[in-house]
Design goal:
The complex is a heterodimer of chains A (315) and B (292). Chain A is built from 11 helices and 14 strands. With 315 residues, chain A is an alpha/beta fold. In chain A, the strands form 3 sheets. Chain A has a 6-stranded mixed sheet with strand order 6-7-8-3-9-10, with helices on both faces. Chain A has a 4-stranded antiparallel sheet with strand order 2-1-4-5. In chain A, strands 12-13-11-14 form a 4-stranded antiparallel sheet, with helices on one face. The longest helix of chain A is centred in the middle third of the chain and has 16 residues. Chain B is mainly α. Chain B has one domain. In chain B, strands 1-2 form a two-stranded antiparallel ribbon. The longest helix of chain B has 35 residues. The relative contact order of chain B is 0.13. Classes of the chains: A alpha/beta (315), B mainly alpha (292). The complex binds adenosine-5'-triphosphate (ATP) and magnesium ion.
């Protein structure tokens, strides 16, 4: 079997005079998780809708596994699981029936569906609700059913638009677990998200768009090393207030520390040259000072830093 | 612009291999779930209440007044009550089941759930149509049962004329056409309320008014208006069919106006024509519909 792929070619979508997606070229191939990032209104949802033939491009085209979606949405979406912008299940159906409908339309065999429907409901922790009508469910419960519906046929490609929308903290962690599990099972996942730690946590690559244009598409490792080349900063938290004298003489004098910012009485931001080794030796020295160090972490994630700098540059 | 993949591609492990059903099978399966949704919906209760109310009024009036003319023969009885009542039932079924069938998919966002699946738009449209057809047929059959119940009471069980079967079949064709038309109108809107309102006004009053305007003012046969075809449902009971063109004259012989009755073929042709054109039109519209 060929590697799964998603592709946008010169993809452009205008709503009246406004161009929401502008000449987007993106080719994602293989089994991995790609985070799709961008500020509100950047065109993420629009792009995902174009990829799944919910809306039609003004110019350019989308291909799923090499099949143009406008020509044959049925074949193109056959191996995909799709969740875009919180859709609604028919309110009179129960979660089990809703997944049965999906399984029916996808032609899952009897044994497959008896295995997969309960599994999918368990994955989103909705097993105990499987016989209740969806109509009265809360937003987060409905979103869990939507996720289950996208997973029920064990898709090769998963297209998720902010899947954690409306979920409680445990639900968000569960979505992360689901994505991680899928990755281990060799799937291609394209997921839009505003939660950068989530992206850092589960994604292998990130694509960033702003104002309908692709700013970059590269691996998370590349993003991290690009950022780290510019120098790093860590936030150190102490059990007791740190005196100005200690800051100036003892901490400021440690090797590698180029500058110290005071965040509050017990927290300092330390700037240092790039490299994890630098951070490691700084941590060791700080502990050695015996000032009651209780916290030590990078001030911003590499992804966050790159995200903010790229978006700013565009504005 | 970076279009190359930053990390090398690896093939996916086999998932559940997709052997998708044909689009016809998909639309039938979809229809089954849609139909179940109709059965549990308030609109189905509303439709049955309308049929029950209509049936109750007919039963009560006939039972109380026992009009001799109406009860003279089964053909007369069915020809006026069934043939007069069932177009009303069908119009209401069209409005209630078809009015927001497509518009509601946008407004309630259920269409977004369906369209994420590997189904053609046409299969979704056809599935919804079939479900609405099945739900409407139930309403028509309940109405038929009420009238046949009355008929059996007055004329005995063996007096059900064969014409009733013919008339029921024609009524089904009228239902096909009417639902096709309401679906077409429904796919012109993305808000349920507008869709239902427009369809209701058009089909309950609009076409009737249009028909008299066309006949009286433009003085042409209104063969292009769907409701013009509906009297054909009663034709199987008639001993003689009404004249195609009727010229009304005053006592002095002056021509007052002309009215028209569809011929058998014409009426059924209008129904099939409406069905075909609205089905094609609705499908074309829905194919171009964006779930923005
Ligand atoms: N149907 C539509 N009609 C008009 N404009 C639209 C439509 N859909 C989207 N837009 C516009 O296109 C732009 C991109 O919207 P989109 O929903 O793709 O953003 P997004 O990146 O998903 O944002 P968010 O992070 O808030 O979900 C926005 O400015 C939005 O107003
Ligand atoms: Mg969005």
């Amino acid at each position: 079997m060929n590697a799964p792929s998603l592709e946008a070619r010169d993809l452009t979508k205008s709503f009246g005079k406004f161009t929401a997606v502008d000449g987007l070229n993106l080719r994602i191939e293989g089994t991995k998780c790609v985070g799709f990032l961008g500020p509100n209104g950047a065109g993420k949802t629009t792009t995902l809708k174009l990829l799944t033939d919910l809306i039609f491009p003004t110019r350019g085209e989308c291909l799923v596994n090499g099949i143009p979606v406008r020509d044959d949405r049925k074949a193109a979406l056959a191996r995909c699981g799709v969740l875009i912008e919180s859709p609604e299940v028919y309110p009179s159906l129960t979660p089990y029936q809703a997944l049965e409908m999906v399984a029916d339309l996808r032609n899952l065999s009897g044994p497959e569906r008896r295995r997969r429907i309960p599994e999918a409901l368990e994955e989103v922790k909705m097993s105990e609700w499987s016989d209740k009508k969806v109509g009265k469910f809360s937003k987060g419960m409905k979103q869990r059913i939507n996720i289950a519906a996208a997973l029920v046929h064990d898709p090769e490609i998963l297209i998720l638009d902010e899947p954690a929308t409306g979920l409680d903290p445990r639900g968000m962690a569960e979505v992360r677990d689901i994505v991680r599990t899928l990755k281990q099972r060799d799937r291609l996942i394209l997921m839009s998200s505003h939660i950068l730690p989530e992206v850092t946590d589960v994604c292998d690559e990130v694509a960033l768009i702003n104002k309908g244009r692709l700013l970059f598409y590269e691996s998370l490792d590349a993003v991290t090393s690009r950022f780290n080349a510019a120098g790093a900063s860590v936030d150190a938290t102490f059990a007791r207030p740190v005196s100005d004298a200690d800051v100036d003489r003892r901490i400021g004098g440690l090797t590698g520390v180029s500058r110290v910012e005071r965040l509050d009485a017990r927290r300092l931001r330390l700037h240092l040259p790039p490299g994890l080794e630098q951070e490691a030796s700084l941590l060791k020295s700080l502990v050695g000072l015996d000032l009651g160090l209780v916290g030590f972490q990078e001030s911003k994630s590499a992804l966050e830093e790159v995200y903010l700098s790229q978006i700013e540059r565009g504005d | 612009m970076a279009t190359a993949s930053p990390t090398p591609a690896a093939p996916a492990a086999d998932g559940i291999a997709p052997r998708l059903p044909s689009s016809v099978i998909q639309s039938l399966r979809l229809a089954r779930y849609q139909f179940r949704d109709y059965l549990y919906s308030r609109r189905f209760v509303l439709m049955l209440s309308i049929v029950a109310a209509l049936g109750a009024i007919f039963t009560a009036l006939v039972g109380y007044f026992r009009p001799a003319g109406l009860l003279a023969a089964p053909d007369v009885f069915y020809g006026s009550l069934w043939a007069g009542g069932v177009p009303i039932v069908i119009v209401f079924a069209g409005v209630i089941f078809g009015g927001d069938a497509i518009a509601g998919e946008f407004q309630n966002r259920t269409g977004y759930f369906l369209m994420g699946l590997p189904v053609r738009r046409a299969a979704v449209y056809a599935g919804k149509y079939l479900a609405a057809l099945a739900a409407s047929l139930i309403a028509v059959l309940v109405f038929a049962l009420i009238l046949v119940g009355n008929g059996v009471f007055y004329f005995g069980a063996d007096a059900l004329p064969l014409a009733f079967v013919a008339s029921l079949l024609i009524a089904c064709v009228y239902l096909l056409a009417l639902l096709g038309a309401t679906f077409l109108f429904s796919s012109m809107f993305k808000t349920s309320t507008y869709a239902v309102l427009v369809v209701a006004v058009l089909f309950i009053f609009g076409f009737g008014i249009l028909q008299s305007v066309v006949t009286d003012l433009a003085k042409i046969e209104p063969w292009f208006i769907i409701s013009y075809a509906s009297p054909v449902i009663g034709y199987p009971f008639a001993s003689t069919l009404p004249a195609h063109v009727v010229t009304h004259t005053s006592a002095t012989g002056a021509v007052l106006g002309t009215s028209y009755n569809p011929t058998y073929l014409e009426g059924i042709g209008i129904m099939f024509g409406y069905f075909l054109l609205t089905a094609i039109g609705g499908l074309v519209l829905f194919e171009r519909e964006e779930f923005a």
